[in-house]
Design brief:
Blueprint lengths: L7 H11 L3 H11 L1 H4 L5 H7 L8 H26 L11 H7 L10 H32 L1 H5 L7 H14 L6 H26 L11 H17 L1 H4 L6 H6 L1 H4 L1 H29 L17 H32 L9 E2 L8 E2 L1 H18 L2 H5 L4 H20 L4 H22 L3 H35 L4 H11 L2 E10 L8 H10 L1 E13 L11 E6 L3 E8 L7 H6 L13 E6 L2 E3 L6 H16 L3 H4 L7 E4 L2 E3 L1
Parallel strand pairs: 3-4, 3-7, 4-6, 7-9, 8-10
Antiparallel strand pairs: 1-2, 5-6
Helix pairs in contact: 2-10, 2-15, 5-11, 5-15, 6-7, 6-19, 7-9, 7-16, 7-17, 7-19, 7-21, 9-17, 10-15, 10-16, 19-20, 21-25
């Protein structure tokens, strides 16, 4: 853990990262910076054409450019690349990994850690809205270049964008291995094109480079008052995607992500924004399409094709990130189990979640058809991401304190960035009425689902605990009754390593038989991304030929119970898995008749999620032909 005292493994990781290969940095460039790398297609344009557009005067152009430059430096370069990337959870990043560092999952609902967990989960829910808006605004802004090439293409912009997005989402089920190898080279070409176009634009008005002085940013905000503050919400579009670089840290490491940014992405972005600004200074009419106004007429179609490819890559990275986020939330018990398809045999990070994919596709297409332009979508974009950045700063502060940063240093960093983050957050609030409500609606829906699921599981466990025997009571009764033992091994999945499963008690009481060997298996998800195989199994012998087994997995690892049980032989317990029967419980949930109306509604929603959750056989990779599943009807 990098925020605390470095361990030997931390030092080894740092040594490995310091020798990061150019190939890894190139891959990181393709995956990590697709979102922020396509912002030049629409960000500056939005300032002079959006709902709160401002005149393209020299003072305004220099002021907005200065805000963009310092947003890229302060938020992306310093906050995320220098500070936040140090808040890793055993090498993994992202808001779920950040929440896990506080270790809040079993804390009291009244505790600060529990409230921070809720805040972090809401931040995670906000990323689902980002997963819908990013493909919509990115692809649409790229295809809109056809209107610049010739007005005859205008009627076809929406159909082409829709077709590209449908193809993107439909292709998810095939995995990203093949197209993923092209991400880095294509994005390198894209950033190279941005740099060259930017340089060409700067020569038209070299005085644009004055905008590097923060004086112009301050003057713009002072001189334009409320409108200047509101336009911060549009300037914020230049840094959307910064939060994803933290989430991708586990795939590439800090050094690769930093090298890709400081060597390629940042210089290219600064050049293209300065180039667009210079073009507007030389020709204010170009503010309508500042990016494509820099493109020579002879290569406009190849650039449109390149831009479209870059936006598809950016969208792919966001979609894949949403899949990964969903699996992490499921592993930590914050969402019901859903079908997860592994699209690569070796890389567990390459997954496909059908229900999430189709929900994102529906939301993305709805956004395109309703807002119909990148300018319209710009009014909806930024609310969720700016809120997420505020939450990240708050969580990072408490993580820093937990890992013994000096309180003065931690407080200084937190206050400094909260001032910046809250300024952008406040400016983005003005977008709510014109479309910013959409990501908040998505986040609210996901967060409510998490809350209903978490509360329902807790209530169900509480009801089941009422009549549950203790281990000691169970074995005393077994010793007295001496039930008939039948050949074979029985595996009972339990939610706690110390409980007697209800199915085992029901079978013994009603059938008066037990298998000759009984395994009580508990799958424990840890607050770290991955648990090494050497630490996977915990085995304890119990009376009457019973065994308590705990299988430990990280929140980024798919649990596989049969594979985990094979490790028992290492500890001296030989198992014939072909002669093993798995007993699984799946209760029927119904609302209590006397419950209040609101409680009934919550129970009905939980019962719906419970019925439609992925069965344990699929989730734990248990062979269905060896499963016996039943359960009682329980009122909540």
């Amino acid at each position: 853990m990098s925020l605390g005292k470095p361990t030997a493994s931390d030092e080894q990781t740092e040594a490995t990262e310091s020798a990061v290969s150019p190939a890894l940095a190139l891959t990181a460039l393709g995956v990590v910076y697709g979102d922020i790398g396509t912002s030049p297609l629409y960000a500056l344009k939005q300032c002079f054409n959006g709902a709160h557009a401002i005149a393209a005067s020299p003072e305004n152009v220099l002021g907005i450019l200065s805000l963009i430059v310092w947003a890229l430096i302060l938020i992306v370069s310093i906050k995320y690349l220098v500070v936040i990337l140090n808040a890793d959870n055993h090498g993994e990043g992202g808001i779920i990994a950040l929440v896990a560092l506080i270790n809040p999952w079993r804390s009291s609902p009244k505790s600060l850690r529990y409230r921070l967990m809720l805040l972090g989960l809401f931040g995670a829910a906000l990323l689902y809205g980002d997963g819908a808006i990013t493909p919509a605004i990115s692809v649409l802004s790229a295809v809109e270049g056809l209107k610049v090439a010739t007005s005859g293409f205008e009627p076809y912009v929406l159909p082409i964008a829709v077709a590209i997005l449908v193809a993107l989402f439909v292709s998810q089920r095939f995995g990203t291995e093949r197209i993923g190898t092209f991400f880095g080279p294509v994005m390198l070409v894209w950033f190279g094109a941005l740099g060259l176009l930017g340089i060409g634009g700067i020569f038209q008005a070299p005085q644009v480079l004055q905008a590097i002085s923060p004086h112009y940013a301050a003057a713009f905000l002072v001189n334009n008052g409320a409108i200047g503050f509101i336009l911060l919400g549009t300037v914020f579009l230049t840094v959307t995607g910064a939060e994803t670089l933290y989430a991708d840290m586990g795939h590439f490491g800090r050094s690769a992500i930093r090298q890709a940014w400081f060597v390629v992405a940042l210089p290219a972005l600064l050049l293209i924004y300065f180039g667009q600004g210079a073009k507007i200074l030389a020709d204010p009419a170009s503010a309508e399409h500042p990016f494509y106004s820099l493109v020579p007429e002879a290569i406009v179609y190849p650039v449109i094709l390149l831009a479209t490819t870059a936006t598809v890559i950016a969208s792919q990275a966001v979609i894949s990130g949403t899949f990964s986020l969903t699996r992490q939330a499921i592993q930590l018990g914050q969402l019901p189990r859903v079908a997860i398809v592994q699209t690569h045999r070796e890389f567990i990070g390459q997954i496909y979640i059908p229900i999430v994919n189709w929900a994102l596709m529906f939301a993305t297409l709805w956004l395109v058809l309703v807002f119909r332009s990148s300018t319209g979508l710009g009014a909806a974009y930024g609310v969720g991401v700016s809120t997420d950045m505020v939450i990240t700063t708050i969580l990072a502060y408490f993580v820093a304190l937990r890992f013994r940063w000096h309180p003065v240093l931690a407080s200084f960093m937190a206050v400094s960035y909260l001032i910046i983050d809250l300024s952008f957050f406040g400016a983005n609030l003005f977008k709510i009425a014109s479309g910013g409500w959409f990501p908040l609606l998505i986040a609210g829906t996901v967060f409510a689902t998490m809350s209903v699921w978490r509360d329902g599981v807790a209530r169900l466990d509480a009801v089941k605990q009422v009549d549950r025997e203790t281990m000691e009571e169970f074995f005393k009764r077994i010793a007295l009754e001496k039930p008939q033992r039948v050949p074979g091994t029985a595996v009972y999945m339990v939610s706690s390593a110390t409980e007697v499963p209800d199915l085992l008690r029901y079978q013994q009481e009603h059938n008066h038989i037990l298998h000759e060997r009984v395994l009580l298996v508990h799958v424990q998800t840890e607050d770290i991304p991955r648990v090494p195989t050497a630490d996977r199994l915990e085995l304890k012998a119990l009376p009457e030929n019973f065994y308590s087994i705990v299988l430990h997995y990280g929140f980024m690892q798919p649990p596989n119970v049969p594979v985990g049980l094979k490790l028992c032989s290492v500890l001296g317990l030989e198992l014939d898995l072909t002669a093993t029967t798995y007993f699984l419980s799946h209760e029927e949930i119904v609302p209590m008749r006397t419950a209040p109306a609101l409680s009934k509604l919550a129970t009905q929603l939980f019962a719906f999620l419970w019925r439609n959750a992925e069965r344990a056989t699929s989730y734990y990779n248990i062979p269905s032909e060896r499963v016996i599943a039943f359960g009682p009807r329980i009122e909540l």
